[in-house]
Design goal:
With 135 residues, this protein is mostly helical. The protein has helices at 2-13, 18-32, 35-47, 52-60, 69-84, 89-98, 101-124.
Length: 135
């Protein structure tokens, strides 16, 4: 229940935009090779207006051409948090230049939440629901 409450904040109470949240979730799913998380959030990302080109760029990562400085920093932060549980100074400076303290906290909590969920879904062998995209 505690996990559901926390995830509910990430989905419905976050100070990040839906687009920012979904970019972070898709990047965590990519880095963690989390098929279930990817499929669930691919639908939500498209509903948030994230294009197929942008989805391909999420897979390519923060250095793919076409990202704004903030979006590249969001993806880079997700990579760094998953790898090292930290964000480097250069990435933090870009993020802090555009996001307020609460948004910065929500960024870290979003990545942490979906990293945990990726781990759980993979460890429990959760299978894709019928009708979910397998892209």
């Amino acid at each position: 229940r505690a996990c559901t409450t926390f995830n509910g904040h990430i989905l419905f109470g976050t100070t990040l935009s839906v687009r920012q949240r979904e970019l972070l979730v898709l990047r965590v799913a990519t880095v963690r090779d989390a098929e279930y998380e990817w499929a669930q959030h691919l639908v939500q990302a498209r509903d948030a207006g994230i294009t197929d080109d942008e989805i391909a760029r999420v897979v390519a990562g923060p250095d793919a051409p076409g990202w704004s400085d903030l979006e590249a920093a969001l993806l880079r932060a997700a990579d760094q948090l998953v790898a090292d549980a930290s964000i480097d100074d250069a990435t933090w400076a870009v993020l802090a230049g555009e996001l307020d303290t609460e948004q910065l906290m929500d960024l870290v909590f979003t990545v942490g939440c979906y990293d945990l969920l990726a781990m759980a879904f993979r460890a429990f062998g959760v299978q894709l629901d019928d009708g979910l995209p397998r892209e």
